[in-house]
Write a structure and sequence with these properties.
247 residues, mainly alpha, 2 domains, two-stranded antiparallel sheet, 10 helices, 9% strand, binds zinc ion
């Protein structure tokens, strides 16, 4: 997973969003069927197509799923599921892009801690604050919070909801990306003279799974060759950390 920067909608599309939501709120909905029918009717209209285009741009050139980053994103996803929360059906901040598999695993499940979602929203928070990566198996799991002495509850819920630790193809994909990132850093280290911008450009081009946020965290810094990069080229390391944090 990676942090996704949410773009603003153009005023015309934003206004259409607000109008559609106001109409839905006024009419009310009768159960999941009513919600599904309203969404289906709206889905191919120009303003929803415009929303889809902005989400695809936000997802990056390969249009990968914003949850798993391993598969092609196929459709608009409601972070707060639309059937139980029809009041958010057309709200821009509630719309993401996901793959069919993540959509199927999530369904209408949406655990809350009080009123706060336990699922990580990649457009509002850095997923690696809650998730961890196992560099030998490629498994994505909940991060262990040393201070609290337990796994991050949001990480636990997100992994469980999207089955991130159970999907073999997904782990293989993360491992492939990790291997490419390692190779890029190893290659730079052998040259001896590092150009931070060039290194970062190469790393970003190779980072299909949003792993840079993990590689340049305290966790990643314990693994070679990231460990060596930090020890031998601290300025380059700090430059990468700062740029990655900026998105
Ligand atoms: Zn997915």
């Amino acid at each position: 997973m990676r942090r996704v920067v949410r773009e603003a909608l153009d005023p015309q599309t934003a206004e259409a969003r607000a109008r559609r939501q106001a109409d839905a709120d006024r009419d009310g909905e009768v159960g999941a069927c009513g919600v599904a029918a309203r969404w289906k009717a709206a889905r191919q209209t120009n303003d929803l197509l415009a929303v889809h285009a902005v989400l695809k741009r936000m997802a990056g050139p390969r249009e990968r799923c914003m949850y798993c980053l391993d598969s092609h994103a196929t459709d608009i996803e409601h972070f707060w599921p639309k059937a139980p929360y029809p009041e958010r059906m057309f709200v821009w901040l509630n719309l993401l892009l996901s793959c069919a598999e993540c959509g199927r695993f999530k369904g209408e499940r949406f655990p809350l801690d009080g009123r706060a979602p336990l699922l990580v929203d990649p457009t509002v928070e850095d997923p690696w604050q809650f998730l961890d990566f196992e560099p030998r198996t490629g498994i994505v799991m909940a991060r262990y919070d040393d201070v609290a002495g337990q796994q991050e509850p949001k990480g636990v819920a997100t992994v469980d909801l999207l089955q991130l630790n159970q999907r073999e193809a997904l782990s293989h994909g993360y491992l492939r990306t990790y291997s490419r990132l390692r190779a890029a850093v190893e290659g730079s280290l052998t040259t001896g003279v590092l150009d931070a911008s060039r290194l970062l450009h190469g790393l970003r081009a190779a980072d299909d799974h949003g792993l840079l946020g993990w590689c340049f965290s305290e966790r990643g810094a314990q693994e070679a060759p990231f460990k060596d990069l930090r020890a031998r080229h601290r300025q380059v390391w700090d430059h990468c950390v700062n740029e990655i944090a900026r998105g």
